[in-house]
Amino acid sequence: MRELVVYENGQGDQRAYNHRITRLFAEHLAKNGLRLTSPRRLILEQFLRTDRHLSQEDIFHAVRPHGVGRATVFRMLKMLQECGLLSPIVGHGGATRFEIELNRPHHDHLICIECGRILEVRWPNLEKIQDAACRKAGFRPKWHRHEVFGVCRSCSSKSAAL
Fold it and tell me: What is the overall mean pLDDT for the chain?
């Protein structure tokens, strides 16, 4: 089972989607008097070519051989979040991982407390119940996040075999 479920992004092929994200980020940087430098591009590309949620350490270890430092990675993650392209997910033990957010349908996360795997799920029926409860209470939600912690199929199988 893959760690990340990939959804249609509504932007055509993956290359066009990646180009759009890169362009939006470059525009955000330009508005702040910054450029899309080689280190920034390397960090962004790590997210665009993966099929899983990445931690700051994952990114750092991938770009370190190219001379990119930990502080650059930290600042870059903050910039990507500020412009709305990246969202954090706090996993088991408080470890934060990140995912590209642009034009992805709302989804929630199942987080394994054994191996740290993060699975994405969509629950349309649960969304309808939430919407109805909010309407009844006169509440206008802006966003929500569901993170369910437990043990994934793979880890359950391993512990059952012991």
Answer: 84
What is the helix (H) or strand (E) element at residue 149, kind and residue range?
Answer: strand 147-150
Cβ-contact 110, 150 below 8 angstroms: yes
Q: What is the pLDDT of residue 3?
A: 38
Say how far apart CA 19 and CA 33 lie, in whole Å.
21
Structure tokens at 86: 């990246």
Tens digits of residue pLDDT in 48-72: 988 788 999 999 999 999 999 999 9
pTM: 0.70
Q: Which residues contact 64 (CB under 8 A, 6 or more apart)?
A: none
Answer CATH for 14-161 from 1.10.10.10, 2.40.30.30, 3.40.225.10, 2.30.180.10:
1.10.10.10
Domain locations in the chain? 14-161
